[in-house]
Design goal:
Blueprint lengths: L11 H13 L8 E2 L1 E7 L2 E2 L4 E4 L7 E4 L5 E3 L9 E2 L1 E8 L1 E5 L2 E4 L13 E5 L3 E8 L10 E4 L11
Parallel strand pairs: 2-12
Antiparallel strand pairs: 1-7, 2-3, 2-6, 4-5, 4-8, 8-11, 9-10, 10-13
Length: about 160
């Protein structure tokens, strides 16, 4: 013998409202974001390694990894969902760790710090034309460089 539990019937207006709320993505608590993409160059050539990070005050940062043409698409929560509206400071993180004590820099360090990058992005709507033009000028370096630190530098002494 089969036992069947009757399901309550939803009225059409209630079902319609529930469907619209789900379709609209309402109630996820996330700020509105718009797609943002662009390019990073250094002295006119694509920056081939690193990532861009946009730092909206009071909101989650948006970031995008650079490809071999210096192109990026920003992500805040979901893949390529963009960035919140407003005018925001930007950093370009142009380095990678080669090992525990060695870092390779593909652009000057100043671009990786919000207080020294000098970069900003104003987002008023969807954009695919963002361009950040970096330069080696004044950095003391003329191309990518390798930086070594002392082993354990900045670490607490072990006891």
């Amino acid at each position: 013998m089969e036992f069947v539990v009757p399901l309550p019937r939803l009225s059409f207006p209630i079902a319609l409202c529930a469907g619209l709320l789900l379709a609209a993505g309402c109630g996820d608590g996330r700020p509105k974001r718009v797609p943002v993409s662009g390019r990073v160059t250094i002295d006119g050539k694509p920056l081939e390694y690193g990532f861009v990070q946009v730092m909206p005050k009071g909101n989650r940062p948006a970031s995008g990894q650079l490809d071999s043409q210096g192109r990026f698409s920003l992500t805040t929560f979901d893949d390529r969902d963009g960035c919140v509206l407003g005018k925001h400071p930007v950093v370009v993180i142009p380095n990678k760790s080669l090992n525990a004590t060695t870092m390779k820099w593909f652009a000057p360090k100043k671009y990786g710090d919000q207080s020294t990058s000098g970069l900003q992005l104003e987002v008023t709507g969807s954009r695919d034309d963002v361009e950040f033009k970096l330069t080696w000028e004044g950095s003391g370096h003329a191309k990518p460089f390798i930086e070594k630190s002392a082993a354990g530098e900045g670490d607490e002494p072990r006891r």
